[in-house]
């Protein structure tokens, strides 16, 4: 099955299979530094289905996507090729677009995929809750904690501590501290 030149006619225009393959490659390499873009793992297939709105929660669920992926891949393989990916889409299309012919449904599915790439929106967000703001507001600190910050809220570091430990190595209140080197030289 050659992917060059094959075009799918759609209501919005025509989409070449090469454009679908471009999106396939973008999702195939997502999150994997060793990926070549020729094969896609199950996690990235599920991501493609989610990001391109193939999974709608009613007709097509994540479970459906996982089942279809397992069905089209080779028995011992953990990835699918572009041809197997197309097979998977052919199976998902009638479920996603009920009441349409297989060809029409597949064309609409391709329309969802073309031009898309993996979304990184909301992957890691910094928690900004009222509780965090309240706990980190240095103007509300009291007692010993208050002394460790200046008026602007910047920490004073070690200078803000009341009791800075003596790390000289001598016992507290020892009268002869600092005399060790002199005693060693005498001998």
Automatic annotation (TrEMBL):
GO-annotated molecular function: tubulin binding
Subcellular location: Cytoplasm
Location of region: Disordered: 143-187
Keyword Disulfide bond on entry: no
Listed GO CC annotations: cytoplasm; microtubule
Pfam hit, one: p25-alpha
SUPFAM superfamilies according to UniProt: EF-hand (SSF47473)
Gene Ontology biological process: microtubule bundle formation; microtubule polymerization; positive regulation of protein polymerization
Transmembrane spans: none
Similarity annotation: Belongs to the TPPP family.
Official protein name in the record: Tubulin polymerization-promoting protein family member 2
Species annotation: Xyrichtys novacula
């Amino acid at each position: 099955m050659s992917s060059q030149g094959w075009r799918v006619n759609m209501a919005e225009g025509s989409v070449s299979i090469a454009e679908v393959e471009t999106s396939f490659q973008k999702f195939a390499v997502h999150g994997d530094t060793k990926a070549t873009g020729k094969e896609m793992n199950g996690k990235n297939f599920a991501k493609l289905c989610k990001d391109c709105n193939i999974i709608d929660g009613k007709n097509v669920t994540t479970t459906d996507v996982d089942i279809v992926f397992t069905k089209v891949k080779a028995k011992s393989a953990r990835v699918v090729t572009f041809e197997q990916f197309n097979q998977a889409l052919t199976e998902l299309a009638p479920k996603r677009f009920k009441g349409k012919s297989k060809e029409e449904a597949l064309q609409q599915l391709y329309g969802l995929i073309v031009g898309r790439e993996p979304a990184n929106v909301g992957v890691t967000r910094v928690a900004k809750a009222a509780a965090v703001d309240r706990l980190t507001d240095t103007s509300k600190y009291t007692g010993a904690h208050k002394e460790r910050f200046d008026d602007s809220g910047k920490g004073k570091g070690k200078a803000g501590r009341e009791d800075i430990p003596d790390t000289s190595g001598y016992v507290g209140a020892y009268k002869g501290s600092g005399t060790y080197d002199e005693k060693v030289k005498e001998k």
